[in-house]
Design brief:
- The complex is a heterodimer of chains A (about 110) and B (about 120).
- Chain A is built from no helices and ten strands.
- In chain A, strand 4 and strand 5 form a beta hairpin.
- The mean pLDDT of chain A is about 100.
- By secondary structure, chain B is an all-beta fold.
- Classes of the chains: A mainly beta (about 110), B mainly beta (about 120).
- At the A-B interface, strand 4, strand 8 and strand 9 of A face strand 4, strand 5 and strand 10 of B.
């Protein structure tokens, strides 16, 4: 089955840019989606189809996808961005949705 | 306003059953696919099951296939997850998630708040 790999944690200072990586075999050929998850809250989609932003999501959130790595970039990070971030793809061969293990973003 | 409201969670003994419900409002539900996703305590998100817009097609994660059944009732604007032969490994918060469209590949644009399922051994 298809596997998505994320680093467990990323730390940045407020106002800096955070880059959260999601690795997968030829992931550039798939559509990647990103979700923000805070404790006790429902997940929120922050990027879909590699780089599109749902309505209401700040422009500070952006995505890219090429080769074996997809990237979620959060520019000008704020304290409220502290959360777990998950990448996701649909694996056509297995007809399964797959999530990465999640990356915890800490704002220093 | 799009709303998904889950219910039906609770404490159950291993080997028991539960049925989760997800009541939909604020949109025409028959135009969208739905999924269930769970998060065990201290763990990441895990996709559980998918149902098509018509309700005719379903798919399941290997960890629940043969034990869980997803279904929907258009007349009630509700999506269900019947969970049988539950084990402690099924302990998690279960989220209902709405696809962005009607395609199998539609990502999860809206989520409910979740319902907690605890399975005792």
């Amino acid at each position: 089955s298809y596997v998505l790999t994320q680093s467990p944690s990323v730390s940045v200072g407020p106002g800096q840019a955070a880059r959260i990586l999601c690795g997968g075999d030829n992931i550039g050929s798939k559509s990647v989606h990103w979700y923000q998850k805070k404790p006790g809250q429902a997940p929120v989609q922050v990027v879909y189809d590699d780089s599109d932003r749902p309505s209401g999501i700040p422009e500070r959130f952006s995505g890219s996808n090429s080769g074996d790595t997809a990237t979620l970039t959060i520019s000008r990070v704020e304290a409220g961005d502290e959360a777990d971030y998950y990448c996701q793809v649909w694996d056509r061969s297995s007809d399964h949705w797959v999530f990465g293990g999640g990356t915890t973003l800490t704002v220093l | 306003e799009v709303q998904l409201l889950e219910s039906g969670g609770g404490l159950v003994q291993a080997g028991g059953s539960l049925r989760l419900s997800c009541v939909l409002s604020g949109f025409i539900s028959r135009n969208y696919v739905f999924n269930w996703v769970r998060q065990a305590p201290g763990k990441g998100l895990e996709w559980v099951a998918h149902v098509s817009d018509s309700g005719d097609t379903t798919s399941y994660a290997d960890s629940v296939k043969g034990r869980f059944t997803i279904s929907r009732d258009h007349s009630r604007d509700t999506v269900y997850l019947q969970m049988d032969s539950l084990g402690p490994e099924d302990t998690a918060t279960y989220f209902c998630a709405k696809g962005r469209g009607s395609g199998r590949w539609s990502s999860f644009g809206h989520w409910g708040q979740g319902t907690l399922v605890t399975v005792s051994s």
